[in-house]
């Protein structure tokens, strides 16, 4: 879902998302209203293969549902699943 007004959101990337963007973070101007919407926007821009359903979002340092409303100046982290052992 998109708004008629753009907001600035600082997006922080982890793991494979950081590798594919080539940046640890960036400020994005967007009309996306939720982390899910913004993830899909960035997924298209960067060619990410991971669907939104497997990525966690954190808004302003706290895990949040992907349908949490975004506001001007929010910090949004996208955290993909990681494997390890």
Can you characterise this structure?
This protein is α+β, with helices and mostly antiparallel strands and 85 residues long. The chain has one domain: Beta-grasp domain (Ubiquitin-like (UB roll)). 22% of the residues lie in helices and 38% in strands. The chain has a five-stranded mixed sheet with strand order 2-1-5-3-4, with helices on one face. A hairpin with a 2-residue loop joins β3 and β4. The longest helix has 12 residues. The model has no long low-confidence stretch (mean pLDDT 95).
The order of strands across the largest sheet is 2-1-5-3-4
Largest pleated sheet: 5 strands, mixed
Q: Specify the CATH architecture.
A: Roll
Radius of gyration: 12 Å
CATH homologous superfamily caption: Beta-grasp domain
Q: How many DSSP E strands?
A: 5
Structural class: alpha+beta
Order of helices and strands: EHEHEEE
Report the principal-axis shape. globular
Secondary structure: helix percent: 10-25%
Percent range for β-strand residues: 35-45%
Structural domains: how many: 1
Low-confidence stretches: none
Helix segment tally: 2
CATH domain class: Alpha Beta
Query: End-to-end span in angstroms?
Result: 38 Å
CATH topology: Ubiquitin-like (UB roll)
Mean pLDDT: 95
């Amino acid at each position: 879902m998109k708004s008629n007004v753009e907001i600035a959101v600082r997006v922080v990337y982890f793991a494979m998302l950081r590798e594919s963007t080539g940046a640890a973070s960036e400020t994005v101007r967007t009309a996306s209203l939720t982390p899910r919407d913004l993830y899909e926007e960035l997924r298209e821009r960067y060619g990410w293969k991971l669907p939104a359903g497997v990525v966690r979002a954190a808004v302003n340092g706290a895990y949040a549902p992907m349908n949490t409303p975004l506001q001007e100046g929010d910090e949004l982290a996208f955290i993909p699943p990681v494997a390890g052992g």
